[in-house]
From TrEMBL:
Polar residues composition bias: residue spans: 241-251
Organism: Seminavis robusta
Residues covered by the Transglutaminase-like domain: 158-212
Protein name, per record: (N-acetyl-beta-glucosaminyl)asparagine amidase
Region entry Disordered, spans: 237-261
Superkingdom, taxonomy of origin: Eukaryota
InterPro entries per the UniProt record, alphabetical: Papain-like_cys_pep_sf, Transglutaminase-like
Signal peptide extent: none
Length: 321
């Protein structure tokens, strides 16, 4: 994710969206675009089975059906998968496209070109163009050339290009969990510039970070020195993982119990700091808990009442982080 301002102000007196709600809406828009990528899941299944192996893929799909006493086995399967994932998808660190030198200097976000929106060769897609969040442009002081880094929101395009950061790789992991393995999952956005995923295993949301190959280490980022303030979880409509009537049978689920698409504040899950400390940080930004709750309510109403395409058409897509 690109860097963002650390300040988050309250709503303006003229009724315009606060920085908090504007950033929330931006991420709801991104999530809607991730959901709109669902038609590519069949290609994703084929790729994962060919690349990771049919047997290993089937083992992952059976995670939820393992007994509660097999939690360590489940974590081992997930950790092995993320270690493999990290070797397939290296973290992009501002390397020049022209001379290969490192240390390119960020020059801003630009609209994607038509070529960047054209699917890679041999990519099966139902549309003539693919969704890009933005294109980052950097300057190389060694060869004086500009390097463009499109931030794709299409799982198969990320697979083909194997170039990304936490934004791309958390998106890809989320689509694998939901679209390939049929597991309840959430996409997690930390407004202090990181993104990861969660999977539901035995009455618990388990943290998964594809860039760190990390499983169930929710305090990892606090160890980096981050003061967690705003972290939200996005989940699409599907079988309710907390309901006993949502029974897993392989990767097929009983649809009698459903949870709606939702966005939830999960900041407390990723820090050992007290709730009072989190609120103090937000107060320093000029953000009240009432404002956050109201913004989340509005976002949830839209997620539950609108299709992803409607949200994409309605929400502002200007980059705010």
């Amino acid at each position: 994710m690109a860097s963002s301002s650390s300040s988050t102000s309250t709503s303006n007196s003229n009724g315009s969206k606060s920085k908090y709600e504007a950033k929330l809406r931006y991420n709801v828009d991104r999530f809607a675009k991730i959901l709109s990528d669902e038609p590519q899941d069949s290609s994703l299944v084929q790729w994962l089975q060919e690349s990771y192996g049919v047997d290993k893929t089937n083992q992952l799909a059976q995670l939820s059906s393992l007994s509660p006493s097999s939690v360590q086995e489940q974590k081992t399967l997930l950790r092995d998968f993320l270690e493999w994932f990290r070797t397939q998808f290296p973290y992009y660190r501002d390397t020049c496209n022209h001379c290969g030198a490192k240390g390119c200097q960020f020059r801003g976000n630009h609209p994607p070109t038509l070529d960047e929106q054209t699917p890679s060769p041999n990519t099966t897609t139902t549309t003539a163009t693919i969704i890009i969040d933005t294109t980052e442009v950097s300057y190389c002081p060694h060869c004086q050339q500009l390097t463009r880094f499109p931030r794709y929101l299409s799982a198969m395009e990320i697979v083909k290009r194997q170039r990304g950061r936490c934004s791309e790789y958390s998106l890809l992991l989320y689509r694998i969990l939901v679209g390939v393995l049929g597991l309840p999952a959430r996409w997690i956005v930390d407004w202090a510039n990181h993104v990861w995923a969660e999977v539901w295993i035995h009455e618990k949301w388990v943290h998964l970070d594809p860039c760190e190959a990390s499983v169930d280490q929710p305090l990892l980022y606090q160890g980096w020195g981050k003061k967690q303030t705003y972290i939200v979880a996005f989940q699409q409509r599907g079988p309710d993982p907390s309901s006993s009537s949502s029974v897993t049978n392989g990767n097929k689920k009983n649809d009698t119990a459903h949870c709606p698409s939702s966005v939830v504040d999960v900041t407390k899950d990723y820090t050992s700091d007290s709730w009072e400390t989190i609120q103090e940080r937000r107060a320093q930004d000029g953000v009240t808990q009432e404002e956050i709750a109201a913004a989340l309510d509005r976002a949830n109403a839209d997620l539950q009442q609108m299709t992803p395409s409607d949200i994409i058409a309605t929400y502002s897509t200007s980059r705010t982080n």
